[in-house]
Amino acid sequence: MTIEINNLHKQFGKNQVLKGVDLTIEKGNIYAVLGPNGSGKTTLIKSILGMVIPDKGKISVLNESIKKNWKYRKKIDYLPQIANFPPNIKVKELIGMIKDLRNSSSEEEELIDLFGLEPFLNKKLSTLSGGTKQKVNIVLTFMFDSPLIILDEPTTGLDPKALISLKELIQKEKTNGKTVLITSHIMQFVEEVADEIVYLLEGEIYFKGSIEKLLEQTEQANFEHAIAAITTGSHA
Ligand SMILES: Nc1ncnc2c1ncn2[C@@H]1O[C@H](COP(=O)(O)OP(=O)(O)OP(=O)(O)O)[C@@H](O)[C@H]1O
Q1: How many whole angstroms separate alpha carbon 15 and alpha carbon 11?
Q2: Which atom of ligand 1 is least distant from the CA of 185?
Q3: Which of 21, 71, 140, 166 is most open to solvent, judged by the fewest CB atoms within 10 Å of its CB?
Q4: What is the ipTM of this complex?
């Protein structure tokens, strides 16, 4: 088991975001964490990363409780939704900096090649387009060799070629036995990469299972409609 979450609660002020989340993430699968805007996907992911401290509940990552334990973070490669890197440094300097910070072995050359980033290595981050910045973020995430990969909205700004490369990269990591957790609002992308759907609604896991099971349960013929059906159904 890669991640085990029991009875997780988190509120911000009066806003109760997570109200008793129970979730098991098994090794070697690709999971999509879905849910409407504001349903708590990022809060859940940040709780797993130790960036949000839960009010109640227990989280174990790779069979270790994460409470008062920071070493487990080294076993996770994380792509944040919005990466705030210093604007004045060059792409290659940023890559070097992250390598020094992580102090782990990395393989970035192949990834730089895959996303066509060579011409940008000597450019400052502030001069890059949104999609190019996201490609740099992807390189920074995938260049290490951690057993757990967490991607928050990884497709943002990517062109079709980069999107295909990202999908191939995710599948390759799965073949290598990695566990991948993804949030995305792009249903076509989710349908193509995810083995399991985890659907958060009103602070709880409303659905967990394969896309086939979701289609059956919602009596819908298509995935995007099935997801929309859950969302509208609950608020009707
Ligand atoms: N640090 C914080 N302080 C106060 N409220 C917060 C904080 N972080 C998140 N929230 C609130 O918690 C709720 C859940 O936010 P979260 O970002 O987890 O949702 P999400 O499902 O990832 O949304 P989206 O699909 O829009 O990215 C929102 O109402 C948000 O305003």
Answers
A1: 5
A2: 25
A3: 71
A4: 0.97
